[in-house]
Amino acid sequence: MIALPRHHRVKALVIAVIAGVVLGVGSYVEILLGFGVPSDQLSVGAVASATLAILALFLSIWTIASTWKKSWTLIPALLTVLSSLLVTNQFYALFPDVNSLDMETPYKEEKVSALQSAPCVPLAEWKPKILQPIAAEGTVVTGTPPTPKSKFHPRESYVYLPPAWFTNPRPQLPVLVLMHGIPGTTDQWFSQGEVGLAAHNYQRNHGGVSPIVVTADATGGVFDNPVCTNSAKGNIQTFLSEDLPQWISEEFSATPDRQHWTIGGLSYGGTCALQTIVNNPNSYGNFLDFSGEITPN
Hints:
Helix content is 40%, strand content 16%.
């Protein structure tokens, strides 16, 4: 293979550096404009590391193209890409530890349509009537809440139902609604947040009883940001305060006492929980704001 003259190699190196920077910045702009992600939701460190990763790949490919004897340069380039992914994960904490890569799932999984109906009684009246054995594990069901009032198009929700819910009669249980941040999906509270494991441990120590845990979509997309309000981007407040509670009450026989309902979330979800309970104080009795914004933005 013919080696390039020195001045050509310098030019190629400069082109590779410029291309890496342009692609990195271009990716940043594309995420901002193409997906509508607010700039404060992106990590400058993650973008910088992605730019360096792209640059490293360019330099490695350019070196290999000059001579295959330097194909080993692909190894540090791939390590740079891996480091970029780790920096991004550190910012968003999508996988907070090694265990979250393969989460323990101490519950069954079903569709909402597979659930059986049964009479229900207030939780305080339920315990004396229980005669049948209670299962060791709860069940996580998936379903999309109908939106007759808000006309919002949410993604599928995940709902944890403790073993006590499957008895006959079943108790009217309290409710915990959890929302994700941006970017985010409705399964993250289970896949990375370990809420299913927490609910399992709780019910195991409380006779099969725990709150019904519902993960709600308050954005409509992974990168969408409707600012948790009623607007052209979606009637989020109406969905969270009317449509979602109605679905939970009718589908899962939850307690009608909203003082025993809690709405919460992480980041955007935490801010949204505060917005919801302030604007609709009768929809939930409590709220949880984890790392929410100081103001909606």
